[in-house]
Amino acid sequence: MQFCDECGSMMHKQDGEMVCASCGASADSEGSEGFVETASQDTSDVIETSEDAASEGKPTAEETCPECGHGEAWYTIKQTGSADEPPTRFFKCQDCGNRWRDYN
């Protein structure tokens, strides 16, 4: 990971050099060793492998889909705010695949 000398933001590789996404400054790459590019990562650890998957391996909740009215959805919980705020619940309808969130 390389950071911009001008503003301190994280830089990304573009056309053989490192470019800052915030201020546009460029610098020579410190070498390609140790860099991980998203395109080369595999998706073997992704739970949801297809849109017609019968079970996504996630817990289910009795939540009404705002799109189709179905009464059951898969959910995940993530801490999106600070530690003293409640976590956010992300839902996906088991019938139509609609996604929504709930901020307790």
Automatic annotation (TrEMBL):
Q: For binding Zn(2+) 1, which residues are annotated in this chain's numbering?
A: 4, 7, 20, 23
Gene3D superfamilies assigned: 2.20.25.10
Annotated region Disordered: where?
31-66
Q: Which UniProt keywords apply?
A: DNA-directed RNA polymerase, Elongation factor, Metal-binding, Protein biosynthesis, Transcription, Transcription regulation, Zinc, Zinc-finger
CDD domains recorded for this chain? Zn-ribbon_TFS
The record's SUPFAM superfamilies line, in alphabetical order, gives:
Zinc beta-ribbon
Q: Which intervals carry biased composition (Polar residues)? A: 38-47
Question: What InterPro entries is this protein classified in?
Answer: DNA-dir_RNA_pol-M_15_CS, Rpa12/Rpb9/Rpc10/TFS, TFS, Zn_ribbon_RPB9, Znf_TFIIS
**Protein name per UniProt:** Transcription factor S
